[in-house]
Amino acid sequence: MDLAAVILIQVLYAIASLIVISSGLAVIFGMMKVINLAHGEFMMLGAYATIEAIRVGINPWVAIFVVSPLAVGVIGVLLERVIIRRLYGRMIDTMLATWGLSLLLIGIVTSIAGNTTAGVSAPLGNFTIGAYSVSSYTLVIIGVSVILAFALRWILLHTSLGLIARGTMQNPQMADALGINPSVVYSATFAAGAALSGLAGGLLAPLTGVVPTMGGAFIAKAFITVIGGGPAIVMGLVSASTLFGAINQIATFASTPVFGEVALLAGAIIMLRLLPQGITGRFFKGSL
Amino acid sequence: MNTPEQPDQTVPGPDALQRFARSWASAVLTLALGVVLLILLPRVLDDFALVQATVYVVMSILAVSLGFIWGFGGILCFGQSAFFGLGAYAYAIAVTNLGDSTLPFLLAIVLPAAFAGVLGYLIFYGRLSDVYMGVITLTVTLILFNLINSTAGPEWKIGVAPLGGFNGIPGIAPLNMPGNVDDVIGPRGLFELSLGALLLVYLLLRTLLAAKPGRVIVASKENEQRLLLLGYDARAYKLSAFVLGAAIAGLAGCLFANWGAFTSPTVFSLAQSAQIIIWVIVGGLGTLVGPVVGCVAIQWLTSQIGTQQTINSNLVLGAILVVFVLMVPRGIVPSIGSICALLTRRSRRKAYARSNINAEVSSRAAQDEHDTPDDKAKVDPHGETVR
């Protein structure tokens, strides 16, 4: 019974971490159709922002939930203005440029912070279920992922901000004619996505070692989740995270974490062959 | 881009340099240059320099493999290093088990090709778009990297060859003459073999591209739908181009394993994949010489950066990739070509304008000037592949 509860928490955690990792990418790719291969490095920047903020004495929770999204959001605006906006509509070029960007960011951070692993300990400590000990921080991540999914859906569907963003992505000329500056909307959307990536990095900083190359571990998982999810941004994110997170965790229990990851990625490739439009291309059509 | 051509407008044909690049003269010139290097370099360079040169040549083969499938087949493979690594590992494991290197050498080519066959079947016959293609190839490379990385324990072995995990496989036996295990290849022999292989690959690809299958492959890049309507199965052609590219990458991997007598999971790493893409985009898409130029230039640059501590090589490579995508999307070799063509055209136009001072001509020239940006849009290397 205790074991079942722990396994359930672990599976939920795997799903939640996929949602957290992929949400920034889901916004940038889902809304703007921009393939951001520097997503992992945005997370890395968020993690470093958190660590540095904690080091100068800011409360860890403020560092995670305020400093890292803000810092990476600002960087996102800058990069969108300088690089990304020249490449809208050219998917392959965007992919290449953002890959270059990811190398560039790794290089810059390595030059500044060095190649060593930095880290903070997870706040809150542990609680026990029977004979098993579980980190309370796991529950924080699960909670954040739930809030994130609902908040994203609410903002996109029920606020004028979300309406403006969706309208502009669908028809920038029309939005322009209605007195909305599409270029500002593009910048803001990209910044929002970057901020979510930064938040993810900050959230995961206490759990993973923070090194300049840490982004590489997340990029494939995040992409496969977003693409596996299909056209509906939030529904796709949640459904693909659920599927892949469950596969990952079950395979991890059956063998080792490495094979869990391999099972996730291999499962995703097979799923894409069966459902090339992603999960929401077939099921839950018309949802968001 | 889709507007029909006006009948009275002259269609801009390929410029002189493009024509030259497609002609047999350029192929013969390149091959002749290669043969001269093949004869000359072992006589001029000492052993150390020759060993250094060998890795440039081996990586050039890898660069050509991606240059072919991306520049001519329109297949942007983010995981060309997967096939490279598979070739290296296949050779290393097989030669440790068998002793004689003939079969392992072939296996290093066939195994990546077969793997590409399966992967390509999933991608092309699933009609997945370019974006999925990029993500899937990236993912597969990461899977291989993770898998091989985790096989450090002594229980992971194929036959008598331990996989070594993140430690890699050291002490790989070099190639030997078929049938005679003691007659192994030396550093000089390896250089000659590698450069010979590069020239052979170049000749093979040039011949293929001049023949009908090659033209269909190029056509599948330009307009897949039109090709389908003409009755060709674009998927099959793309798949065979992909498999051929993987076989060439596997060959490069085998030579690389020979070069250092060592292979490690870094051959599968993202950094390696990124490098191959940078070589090709810097050298120039849509040419076979371009990737080699880009590869040699970038490799040289990376080794220069490696000798000092202040600037990180990732930083420089990333900056190069961003700058090239934004400003020189066609790469060095085609850009040099178009600059030459622009200069000759301008001087020709000047001479023409001098010879008859006519209002109509000058207006036509002004119109030409106006048309230039359109031309640029037309030759945008990825313009057609965006879906």
Which chains have the largest interface?
Answer: A-B, 42 and 48 residues
CATH A-level architecture of chain A: Orthogonal Bundle
Average pLDDT over all residues of chain A? 86
Which strand order does the major sheet of chain B show? 1-2
Shape of chain B: globular
The secondary-structure class of chain B comes to mainly alpha
Helix content of chain B: over 70%
Largest sheet data of chain B? 2 strands, antiparallel
Our estimate of the beta-strand percent of chain B is: under 5%
**Overall pLDDT level of chain B:** 81
- Write down the secondary-structure element order of chain B: HHHHHHEEEHHHHEHHHHH
Please tell me how large the radius of gyration of chain A is.
Answer: 19 Å
Tally of separate domains of chain A: 1
Widest β-sheet, arrangement of strands of chain A: 1-2
Outline the structure in words.
- The complex is a heterodimer of chains A (288) and B (387).
- Chain A has 288 residues and is an all-alpha fold.
- Chain A has one domain: ABC transporter involved in vitamin B12 uptake, BtuC (Orthogonal Bundle).
- Chain A contains twelve helices and two strands, in the order ααααββαααααααα.
- In chain A, a hairpin with a 2-residue loop joins strand 1 and strand 2.
- The model of chain A has no long low-confidence stretch (mean pLDDT 86).
- Chain B is an all-alpha fold and 387 residues long.
- In chain B, the strands form two sheets. Chain B has a two-stranded antiparallel sheet with strand order 1-2. Chain B has a two-stranded antiparallel ribbon with strand order 3-4.
- In chain B, strand 1 and strand 2 form a beta hairpin.
- Chain B starts with 15 loop residues before the first helix and ends in a 9-residue tail after the last helix.
- The N terminus and C terminus of chain B are likely disordered.
